[in-house]
Design a protein that fits this description.
About 60% of the residues lie in helices and about 0% in strands. It is mostly helical. Helix 1 (about 5-20) crosses helix 3 (about 40-55). It is found in: Cytoplasm.
Length: about 80
């Protein structure tokens, strides 16, 4: 799975599962502010990402994650480390 495929899949999940408007998703946008998710939604996001990409995410993984690009990079690193 290449970078573009990862990005498209994450965005698809956000739009379909979390009803985020696709137009507000951009790499430089603030992840937390844009998504407006509460703590339970974040748990759902983690579970959904883990199920779709076969990776394991933990709380320390999210330290320093501010933008969508940071999140994309995190998932891409997790996938690379898995392989």
């Amino acid at each position: 799975m290449n970078t573009e495929e990862i990005l498209e899949k994450i965005n698809e999940i956000l739009v379909d599962e979390f009803e985020v408007d696709a137009e507000v998703i951009s790499p430089e946008s603030n992840l937390k502010d844009t998504l407006g998710l509460d703590s339970l939604d974040y748990v759902d996001l983690v579970v959904t990402i883990e199920a779709n990409f076969g990776v394991k995410l933990s709380e320390p993984d999210f330290v320093g994650i501010a933008t969508f690009q940071d999140f994309y990079n995190l998932i891409e690193r997790k996938i690379e480390n898995k392989n």
